[in-house]
Structures are given as structure tokens and as C-alpha cells.
Design goal:
This protein is of the alpha+beta class. Helices cover 17% and strands 24% of the residues. The strands form 5 sheets. Strands 4-3-7 form a 3-stranded antiparallel β-sheet, sandwiched between helices. Strands 9-8-13 form a 3-stranded antiparallel β-sheet, with no helix packed on it. A 3-stranded antiparallel β-sheet has the order 10-11-12.
């Protein structure tokens, strides 16, 4: 089921369901993203996007004073022209020279990150290095209130004795800081990376 809403981007009518909102710093860096329509939740204006990201008026006003802008683009345009390149030209990491590529070294795994990325990079979300795509995939499949098992510290593959929470999500997934897909769960005050959150397996769905 779609929202039935249409917006105009570059003088062309586009279904809102095919779009996303992107928060940009004055330099051009993207810092947050959210798909415009997920289930019954519709974000149709820049103000609604800001209210989704920032709960208080004080926070929203501060972001506006900082020069933050909110941009609507189609997800097709995002995938083709932006992807994981969230940094502006001034802040983008320099491209490695040909000399540095003579003897490449395999990168070390990220701290506290398992090779089994079931939530954002495996069975639950489909493998992707793009946080906005991971968020969009999660929000399409798992509404707020989905039963999950969350690992605030490390995954059990890395330390079976570390904290484990059998809980439910209390927010939609969001991109934190322009680089990490996260979600909030009941019983834990901070957000948790989607790589550390597994949707609960319901009997009969194996």
C-alpha cells in the first residue's frame, strides 16, 4: 500500500514513497537520512523530517541556526549519485595513490563487530555498506515494536558472556552521524548498531 502522495523534484512529479529526506551541513556533508514513507508513517515536509530527528524545538532551532538544511531526493537518485559518499569534497577521505595500492593489506574487523551481520548486512537486512540503504531495508521489514535480541556490547560470536537483551524496538532505524545504522530498544537508553540487533525468530518462520 502506498501513500498516494506526489512531490515535485526538478520540475518532475515523483511519488513520495520513492523518496527520502537527507539532513545536510552547510559544507554539504550528509549527517542523517530517513525514507519518506514506511508503512503508516509519512514524512511529507522538511519540518516533519526535523521533528522526526529532533524531538524538542530547542534542538530543531539549534540545527537551523547551525545552517542545517533538509533535502528531498528520490532513492534512485541517491543510490546512483550519492550512495555511501556522504562527505562533501572538503571532508572526503583522500583517494589512495597507486603506490599505496602495490601491497594492499586486508583491513582488520571493526571493534565489537561480528562477521555475522544478520541485522544490517545479512539475512535480516541484505548486505550493504551504505547506512541509508540498511536503514531503509530495516524499516521496511521491521516496524517499531518488533521483538529483537540486541547486543549493546559485543555479539555472542565474539563473547558469549556479554550482555544480551531480549526486547523490542522503540524507534525506527536511523543513520547516526552519517555513518552508522542504529535503532533504539526497550530497556536500553542508548542506540544500538543494527549489526548488533537480530529480529527474533518466530516459530513457523524458519
Amino acid at each position: 500500500m502506498t501513500s498516494g502522495l506526489t512531490v515535485t523534484i526538478n520540475d518532475q512529479p515523483v511519488p513520495l514513497d520513492e523518496c527520502g529526506w537527507f539532513e545536510r551541513r552547510p559544507c554539504g556533508c550528509i549527517v542523517s537520512a530517513i525514507v519518506a514513507v514506511v508503512g503508516d508513517r509519512v514524512i511529507a515536509t522538511p519540518d516533519q523530517a526535523l521533528r522526526h530527528w529532533y524531538r524538542t524545538k530547542r534542538e530543531r532551532d539549534a540545527r537551523v541556526r547551525d545552517g542545517i538544511t533538509v533535502e528531498l531526493m528520490t532513492m534512485a537518485y541517491y543510490r546512483e549519485h550519492v550512495g555511501s559518499r556522504w562527505e562533501c569534497h572538503a571532508h572526503a577521505a583522500p583517494v589512495a595513490s597507486s603506490a599505496s595500492l602495490v601491497a594492499p593489506v586486508a583491513p582488520e574487523p571493526a571493534p565489537n563487530a561480528s562477521q555475522d551481520h544478520r541485522a544490517a548486512g545479512g539475512a535480516a537486512g541484505g548486505h550493504t555498506d551504505d547506512p541509508a540503504v540498511a536503514v531503509a531495508t530495516w524499516n521496511t521489514r521491521y516496524p517499531v515494536g518488533t521483538p529483537v535480541t540486541a547486543y549493546p556490547g559485543v555479539r555472542p560470536e565474539d563473547d558469549p558472556t556479554d550482555e544480551r537483551l531480549d526486547t523490542r524496538t522503540r524507534s525506527e532505524a536511523q543513520v547516526l552521524g552519517g555513518h552508522t545504522a542504529v535503532v533504539w530498544v526497550d530497556g536500553h537508553s542508548a542506540c544500538i548498531a543494527l549489526t548488533h540487533v537480530d529480529p527474533a525468530v518466530v516459530e513457523g518462520t524458519r
